[in-house]
Amino acid sequence: MTEYSHLGKQLAVELHGITKRFPGVIANHDVELLVRAGTIHAIVGENGAGKSTLMKTLYGMHQPDEGTITVNGNPAQFKTPTDAIAAGIGMVHQHFMLADNLTITENIILGDEPVDSRGRINFKEARARIESLMTSLGATFNPDTNVSELGVGQRQRVEILKVLYRGAKILILDEPTAVLVPQEVDELFTTLKRLVAEGATVIFISHKLDEVLTYCDEITVIRQGTTVARTTPSQVDRRSLAELMVGSDLPDPSGRETKVGDDVRLQVTGLNLAGDIAGAKLALEDINVAVHSGEIVGIAGVEGNGQFELCESILGLRTILSGSISVCGHELSHTETRDRINMGLSYIPFDRHREGLLLDAPLWENTFLGREENSSLTNGPFISRSKIEADCRSIINRFGVLTPSEQVPAFALSGGNQQKLVVGREMVSDPKILLAAHPTRGVDVGAQAAIWDELRHARDKGLGVLLISADLEELIGLSDRILVMFDGRVTAQLDPATATPEMLGTYMTGEVQGDAR
Amino acid sequence: MKFFKSLTTGQRTIALSLGFMLVLSIVRLFTNADDITSSGTISSTLRVATPILLAGLAGVWAERVGIVNIGIEGMMIIGTWFGGYGAWKWGSWAGIALAIVAGSLIGLLHALATVRFNVNHVVSGIAINILAAGTTEYLSIIFFKGQKGGGESQSPAGKGGYGEFDMPFLSGGRIGSWRSPDILGWIEQKHDLPLIPDLAGLLRGLVSDIYIPTIVAISLVPLTAFILWRTRFGLRVRSSGESPQAGESLGVPINRLRYQAMAISGGLAAFGGAYLSCVFTSTYRQGQTGGQGYIGLATTIFGNWTPFGVFRGSILFGFPSALKFRDEKNVPALLLVIAVILIALGIVSAMKNKQMLTMGLFIGAAVSAATYFLVDEVPQEFVAATPYIVTILVLAGAQQQLRPPAHAGIAYRAGENH
């Protein structure tokens, strides 16, 4: 363990012996964190390791049960975020805290509005301050537009502006890159470096090891609620860092032997889908996709370019304009979703909170969802709770879902564990074809490896997978072919053996359009 | 169309209003139903619209802060009772004041249930409606039964006195004891001209026979807009309805704001109720609100959660009601008005190439027009239902373009953000 104080640079944040308990769980125990001023400091760890809990403690969203917080050399006790803000700490949350229907300006000044003597908001002054901050951040947008009109990268910039507007010198970013494409990640770190050069300190939470190693100055590793190592990018490589996080040796991700089958499991031909507004351009235009047994076909694309609509069309949730969809040779353009699922179609949805889970329902109800007609889980017309619970427990064990029991509500699980539960549910019914949308989004390396293993294993047994992902490494690593979607069309087909993330990125933004057979 | 799109919002409103007046004017010339644009109808429209306007503003305040307020009807009922009681004891202004205080307390009760105890907003609202109806009945038995003019279901007559208000010169108002000429009234009588007497009627309706509480209520429209969009308090209220997590993470006291806005909402709804029991009439009667709280909530939605939108919605509802109140013979003319408007909408939708919609609109227009020519006398029940039918039609049409506060009605507990 290295002490940084002798390096001469002042410590911006010091946490000693932080312990935080929640009913039934110890989220953090005995955490030691030292962050030097003027650095980008990464905190890495698996999902549920306690990174976010720790940062919420530092930001005053809850109080630690034990331990001390020192900011810029002064002991601090934060009862609310307001106290932390006053001490110069700002936090950019993982889920953006923005009100869509308010303007950028309104979102930024909220809670700290410049007002005149009559209580009126001085929008002129607000705008002047925001514009000067925008210049230093290198952001270009009209602060009077509604946040609802902004893309993900821009929203993040608004979040950072919010923090800077309050005079924060210490920025906490909770998994800021989870939602960004590679180009946006680059821009984000350019911005952060600029801020650091101007005297800010950045605490960066992530489980994406490449970014951490490329961009950060120092690294603290958290495992199972406590800090296990402090290091720098020059001292570790990707693999050793991952092992520090997981606490054990990792399975080797490489080494796959593909045996693509001959029979076509999913065939989409000439698919057209009308846009949301009548008369507007098509949401999907002439989509042709075939997935064979034992094949993983990756779909790359910036979110909102038709991937979601494609999945919903295949599932029968949208009425298509023309074209045909067939599973294992059965034409099903005009069948109901239920029949399509019975035919062997399975779906890991884009947003596990909106479509994948009933957050307030217990896990066993969640794993039963969509499998109501499975006779091994029912007693005639009645559901069999004992069978379902046993089935749920087997999913929990097989997919390594961390949970006290199958009776807890889904919202009590961390995001990664929720995702494992959803993946497990969709995989246990032995589907013929799996639509997997972001199967490892927001999932730590350990769980990610487990999900990848399951996917590969099922593929080797003949499962056809349509894999939609924003994680380009995942696409390249898993897919047998990669299709790029842009603007509702398939614009390119690439061979993962030769494709690189940068190359995919250029196709995804529509700069280049290739051969799309 | 391009020209129309180039106009500012204000100019569009004026253009649309003028267009609507023109339609009314044509129908008036055609049917000789002079009353449909008379100043009497207009001022009567304002009177009928005021309680709905106040209920709608109550809805705006509640939903903008993130709480669905189905209980507006109940809050209005509380307002009618306390308005009636206050007017009987001390006079009508006291009645209104008492009603606002009582309504604020009921608003706080709704906030307590939904914010502190996380009761489903609709459940709590319905509970308030039932509670209000029962409580007022009970209070009436205690306080009004056996009093002169009072009974189990109505209060003794209130002490009146708001003085109606006429503008000098424009509508013959008095200056001291001298009665000024009634210029607009004179123009309004020139029934043979198109448009001009209609506009005069509109203007005169706005400045004659107006109750001061009506003026107060209407001035609450720009006041609400100003507070919600130009002040710190208003921005925080809106943030609470859009994303309370965002506000909370920046130190905005979401729960306190919700109590405050609900007190305002309850006060406004009760003001609307008191308007019924001490301005529109001078006694409290059981069942006086007659569902106007729900109509008010509908105008909140129709008005896209903005105060000016609510104002438009309340006028839209008030106009057929006023026609009905003044003379039921006017209602058939309304059918023709509907027919003309449907044709206009049909042409617009035809230009946008929406065939199904266009067809529906033209069929509707044909049915309305045919009904007008074929039926001599509209059945009483239909007349009574007209305002409600119009409201439903407009709401159905407006639905698609509406944007409610993103977090209205969703349970929220401070410190949780899953």
Give structural notes:
The complex is a heterodimer of chains A (517) and B (418). By secondary structure, chain A is of the alpha/beta class. Chain A folds into 3 domains: 5-246, 3-Layer(aba) Sandwich (Rossmann fold), CATH 3.40.50.300; 252-344 and 431-517, P-loop containing nucleotide triphosphate hydrolases (Rossmann fold); 356-429, no CATH class. Chain A has 17 helices and 22 strands. Chain A has helices spanning 51-58, 81-86, 104-109, 123-137, 152-165, 182-197, 209-215, 238-246, 307-315, 337-342, 352-356, 363-368, 385-398, 415-428, 445-460, 472-478, 501-508; strands at 11-22, 25-36, 40-44, 66-71, 74-76, 89-92, 170-174, 201-206, 218-223, 226-231, 264-273, 284-292, 296-300, 322-327, 330-331, 345-348, 378-379, 382-383, 433-437, 464-468, 481-486, 489-494. In chain B, 70% of the residues lie in helices and 2% in strands. Chain B has helices at residues 2-5, 9-31, 39-64, 72-89, 92-116, 121-143, 183-188, 196-207, 212-230, 232-242, 244-249, 254-280, 292-302, 307-326, 331-351, 355-374, 380-398; strands at 164-165, 174-175, 178-179, 210-211. The A-B interface holds A 61-62, 80-82, 85, 91, 93, 95, 97-102, 106-107, 109-113, 115, 119-121, 162, 166, 278-279, 353, 359, 411 and B 230-233, 235-236, 238-239, 242-243, 245-247, 249-252, 352-354, 403, 405-406, 415, 417-418.
Helices and strands in order:
The complex is a heterodimer of chains A (517) and B (418).
Chain A: E1 11-22, E2 25-36, E3 40-44, H1 51-58, E4 66-71, E5 74-76, H2 81-86, E6 89-92, H3 104-109, H4 123-137, H5 152-165, E7 170-174, H6 182-197, E8 201-206, H7 209-215, E9 218-223, E10 226-231, H8 238-246, E11 264-273, E12 284-292, E13 296-300, H9 307-315, E14 322-327, E15 330-331, H10 337-342, E16 345-348, H11 352-356, H12 363-368, E17 378-379, E18 382-383, H13 385-398, H14 415-428, E19 433-437, H15 445-460, E20 464-468, H16 472-478, E21 481-486, E22 489-494, H17 501-508
Parallel strand pairs in A: 3-8, 3-9, 6-7, 7-8, 13-20, 13-21, 16-19, 19-20
Antiparallel strand pairs in A: 1-2, 1-4, 4-5, 9-10, 11-12, 11-14, 14-15, 17-18, 21-22
Chain B: H1 2-5, H2 9-31, H3 39-64, H4 72-89, H5 92-116, H6 121-143, E1 164-165, E2 174-175, E3 178-179, H7 183-188, H8 196-207, E4 210-211, H9 212-230, H10 232-242, H11 244-249, H12 254-280, H13 292-302, H14 307-326, H15 331-351, H16 355-374, H17 380-398
Antiparallel strand pairs in B: 1-4, 2-3
Helix pairs in contact in B: 2-15, 3-8, 3-9, 3-12, 3-13, 3-14, 4-5, 4-6, 4-12, 4-13, 5-6, 5-12, 9-10, 9-14, 10-12, 13-14, 13-17, 14-17, 15-16
